[in-house]
Design a protein that fits this description.
alpha/beta, EreA/ChaN-like  fold
């Protein structure tokens, strides 16, 4: 089987020698309105570099509206406001990216992101597009920060919704910003704040007309309220139900994505940067057997064929930024050669060079056997990766295209103050 897969890769793979070669991928994307760009780790420099160059092309040549990332909404909004010139809080992209203080901060507070953010600011200032390109975090973790953003604005305008927001925030105060404490209280003892955050989200939506769209104020309020509601659900389920909390998180990311799409209007086009485990269709992996869904599956189900284009990324060996356990300092770790018989191993053995592979009606059937596909998380131990870092995947169903970068290196985190967990 592996020999046949290797032969098929040799026949259909296209070399990736530089940025210009990405034009082939742009052509393949065609008229898709949502382009999902994955990564096999959250700490590989080349994944960020290639996604950045591809995103520039999609924004400039195909009019894509914004980039949504696997990051916190409040921190991303600071970057978005820098890009769009809504205020002058920051003098550079590096300063704006330092807003990402939550662990693992290196995912967005890294040097590889600086060029893209400065490019987006310059592009927006050029006036070459009818709407300015934006940058948004669509993840669910920023419970307390999102609540503070809501209260800060409602206090500023003395909103009738302020008391509802204060009641919601006060419900969480006893937990001292500790998600684990809240998770135990809500998930095990059923002493949570679901009623309070649901009331807040309902109130903000009911009174949406009171809040201006100027500088994205209404969007900011809605999504921060959505984060509060879904973060409560996420933390309430995480201690008892891994699959359920995963689903809450990915359902939230799609809901946040849809809010931004609605804000930009009927012509909106989105680029999404997330890990392969989020953007590659869960139905093509063993996740489906566990009852898990993900962003890739959900957006395909919500949109017609051709509207969504998913691009997976992978590497054979190199280095990566990751940590030994959750919440501790990161370091540079070796990425060993992919295990024998894995997707990355076969891609490497067909030629140790960077390449792209496109799946379409002519060749999908040639790649329809499940094969181990490497996934590296923010917590990573290379010595044990063969026991949990390979996801059985039908590659031609999981993605529409795959970018293989044979040898890769760790990205370069910005030096930050002590981070939030």
């Amino acid at each position: 089987m592996l020999k046949q897969v290797a032969d098929n890769i040799k026949e259909y793979a296209v070399p990736l020698t530089g940025t210009a070669d990405l034009d082939v991928l742009v052509d393949k994307i065609g008229d898709a309105r949502i382009v999902l760009l994955g990564e096999a780790s959250h700490g590989t420099s080349e994944f960020y570099q290639v996604r950045a160059e591809l995103s520039k092309k999609l924004i400039k040549e195909k009019g894509f509206s914004f980039i949504g990332v696997e990051g916190d909404w409040p921190a991303s909004q600071k970057v978005n406001r820098y890009i769009k010139g809504y205020n002058h809080q920051f003098n550079s992209a590096e300063e704006a990216l330092r807003s990402f203080q939550r662990w693992p901060s290196w995912m967005w507070a890294n040097r590889e992101m600086i060029n893209l953010i400065e490019w987006m600011k310059t592009y927006n200032e050029s006036g070459s597009a009818k709407t300015k390109a934006g940058f948004y975090g669509i993840d669910v973790y920023s419970l307390w920060e999102s609540m503070e953003e809501v209260i800060r604005y409602l206090e500023k305008i003395n909103s009738p919704d302020l008391e509802t927001a204060r009641q919601a925030f006060s419900c969480f105060e006893p937990f001292m910003r500790d998600p684990q404490k809240y998770a135990v209280s809500s998930g095990i003892y059923s002493e949570g704040c679901i009623d309070e955050v649901t009331a807040l989200l309902t109130q903000i939506r009911t009174n949406e007309s009171l809040y201006p769209k100027t500088d994205e104020i209404s969007l900011n309020l809605k999504v921060n309220s959505l984060v509060a509601a879904n973060a409560e659900r996420y933390y309430s389920t995480m201690v008892l139900h891994d699959a359920m909390s995963w689903n809450v998180r990915d359902l939230h990311m799609v809901a946040a994505l849809n809010e931004v799409m609605d804000f930009y209007g009927s012509d909106a086009k989105a680029i999404v940067w997330e890990h392969n485990t989020h953007i590659g269709d869960a139905r093509a992996t063993d996740m489906a057997r566990e009852g898990m869904v993900n962003v890739g599956q959900l957006v395909r189900e919500q949109h017609k064929p051709g509207d969504v284009y998913a691009v997976g990324f992978g590497t054979y060996s190199g280095t990566v930024i990751a940590a030994d356990e959750w919440g501790v300092n990161h370091d540079v770790k070796e990425v060993p050669p992919a295990i024998l018989g894995s997707w990355e191993d076969v891609m490497h053995r067909t030629g140790a060079y960077d390449k792209m592979l496109f799946f379409d009606d002519n060749n999908r059937h040639l790649f329809n056997e499940a094969i181990g596909h490497r996934a590296i998380g923010v917590v990573y131990n290379p010595e044990y990766e063969r026991f949990g870092n390979y996801v059985p995947s039908v590659m031609s169903e999981r993605y529409d295209a795959f970018v293989f970068l044979d040898q890769t290196k760790a990205l370069q985190p910005l030096q930050l103050q002590p981070f939030l967990v």
